[in-house]
Amino acid sequence: xxxxxxxxxxxxxxxxxxxxxxxxxxxxxxxxxxxxxxxxxxxxxxxxxxxxxxxxxxxxxxxxxxxxxxxxxxxxxxxxxxxxxxxxxxxxxxxxxxxxxxxxxxxxxxxxxxxxxxxxxxxxxxxxxxxxxxxxxxxxxxxxxxxxxxxxxxxxxxxxxxxxxxxxxxxxxxxxxxxxxxxxxxxxxxxxxxxxxxxxxxxxxxxxxxxxxxxxxxxxxxxxxxxxxxxxxxxxxxxxxxxxxxxxxxxxxxxxxxxxxxxxxxxxxxxxxxxxxxxxxxxxxxxxxxxxxxxxxxxxxxxxxxxxxxxxxxxxxxxxxxxxxxxxxxxxxxxxxxxxxxxxxxxxxxxxxxxxxxxxxxxxxxxxxxxxxxxxxxxxxxxxxxxxxxxxxxxxxxxxxxxxxxxxxxxxxxxxxxxxxxxxxxxxxxxxxxxxxxxxxxxxxxxxxxxxxxxxxxxxxxxxxxxxxxxxxxxxxxxxxxxxxxxxxxxxxxxxxxxxxxxxxxxxxxxxxxxxxxxxxxxxxxxxxxxxxxxxxxxxxxxxxxxxxxxxxxxxxxxxxxxxxxxxxxxxxxxxxxxxxxxxxxxxxxxxxxxxxxxxxxxxxxxxxxxxxxxxxxxxxxxxxxxxxxxx
Length: 632
What we know:
By secondary structure, the chain is of the alpha+beta class. The protein has a domain at about 380-630: Alpha/Beta hydrolase fold, catalytic domain (Rossmann fold). The longest helix is centred in the C-terminal third of the chain and has 19 residues, at about 615-630.
């Protein structure tokens, strides 16, 4: 058996885009591994089942589309000149094996095939209205200049997005022509096609100045080219044809704000009629650093729709039949990342408490063996506790070679979100801390996902009820386990709580604050989501309610901070911009509090999960070195 090290994530295979093909009996996915030597990630298409094997070897294939003749189409833009971004090349990959052969090229940027028709394909593509402006003005492209006039003008992981939209196009390969189906001001999401292939269903968000929060549900007639808005005033996260009706997953956010759990609705005569009487937390937000990309969490067949849902800290698969009855066909304490359905068969990708991602078939067991390693998985306790009348769950991971007669340092880890959740899943970072001789403990305070709207809704209560839950949990752990020095680490929301902790308690011997929020005023006016998320989470009407935003800002209390703090931030983190960490760092320096700031150039909010492999290793070393200095 071997213990986890800084770079152990490189030994794991990450799974995405799981698909059971409709026109053959094959199951495919994309597998990704961290390539530490070349400081990148290698992705290939993989065939699952009998004669399982890697189906491509380019190390750059991240998606595929199933043709009705059973072959696959893959995108190979990386083979083109890097300057020629306004073209997307597609290659045919024979389902029985063989080399990918060039099929056609579309003169549009980043095309993705969504549906196949008899003579054409429905695709999405990235449209940049700046390019149109350049054509009719004397303004010229200059890679050193960014111009923006909209909100948002940048987005985490995407970069600058001013005047950029996702549009739909119908491409006719026989004549190499395309028709653009949607306008230049609308972003298009969640596209579906009717069974008879006569209509498209999609969600549209249209704006010219400031992006609104609520979407429009649109039906598009492929024969006439006419579109019809059939529903407004909902935040929609899925739209599909099912049972000869339109089913959406959406919320109006009226009772519990932007993080309010979505419900299932059938849309009839311009009205949304709720289908589920029980509250479900749709989608899986269980945190881990042992996955890389994603796949579908909503699937449908002729007879059923399937959904991944959260139940506290575990995930389940929910099934809805044609009479709109619901039943949970799989209930786990683990993390189901994606599903794929065909006829009566359902496949899913899951991470357990002792194994990375694998593919499973419902009622049949595990189908792959990507992540069977001889790693030593740490001993872990799980227990319930109460605070303010709420029952919560906490976990404690023991240090390597635990001796009950010795004292050990401990680390409280707080998740992001706050609408995410910790669960019974393998987590590389926590296993690393354990292998280095630390107790690691974590919980799901109020604000976390999976426990319902009332539990989740901490608008205006940041640093209040959540802080109380975390400190109560810390008290219990310190009483039950031989911990003598105490550290804290957390990112995003956990980074906000790091800044709040250092300004409201001296309980910790050191703190690591990652991709944090320190000032709700600046966050609300800088973050890609700040102009609506900052106000929503602080229960203010506008971003100009400075008194209320400042009251909940850790920076206001920085003169109280005496705990040594390591700040970790990335230059292209537009979710929690680097200025948030810098403000707190400078305040601590002026307060003569020991602090260190580590900046990662070119990384974004996802550094710990999908950052460049060498940067992920350096981040972990910085954290562990900080703990080593202050907790030993």
